[in-house]
Amino acid sequence: MKRIETKLPGVYIIEPKVFGDHRGYFMETYSTKAFSDLGINTVFVQDNQSFTAQKSVLRGIHFQNAPMAQAKLVRVTKGAVMDVAVDLRKGSPTYREWITVELSAENKLMLYIPRGFGHGFKTLTEDVEFCYKVDNLYNKELDRGIRFNDPAIGVEWGEVIEHLLSPKDISSPLLEDSDCNYIFGEV
Question: Which of 31, 60, 134, 174 has a CA between 20 and 30 Å from the CA of residue 156?
Answer without folding.
Answer: 134
